[in-house]
Design goal:
single chain; alpha+beta; Nucleoside Triphosphate Pyrophosphohydrolase; 3 helices; globular
Length: 152
Amino acid sequence: MSRAGESVIPVQSGALPWRLKGSKKAQPTAEVLLVTGRRSGRWMIPKGWPMAGKSLADSAAQEAFEEAGIKGRIDPEPIGRFRHIKQHLLFGRMEVDILVHPLTVKRELKDWPERGERLRKWFTLDEAVTRVDSRELAQLIVRFGERLRTSP
């Protein structure tokens, strides 16, 4: 609950789409899929406002489909959150907290709702860390990579 005079930071849900790339002979490499912002052109994860009737994780999966044309298994447990400065059409510059859920990508579609509005690209974890503007998001990607390396 916020106190009088305090502002409440709105929450968005985000997906960290990932896959293992490589053959069974070679050590697979973890990659994450980033998309560009419609107006900014900066590399970011798919994200958006919570959707009525959907959990934050399911909202994140829906955003990943709409923004990046991917489908997969969303983890209901977020791996963390980061603060993002958003340029909202009506409200101008605003801060939002983005709750991030890993999404294991199973399918990449050739066509999707925002195909002509954004680019999508796979990056190694190390590359993704250098491409995103948010230091907090970069740290989440690093922690996610560490989690992948230590999981059975």
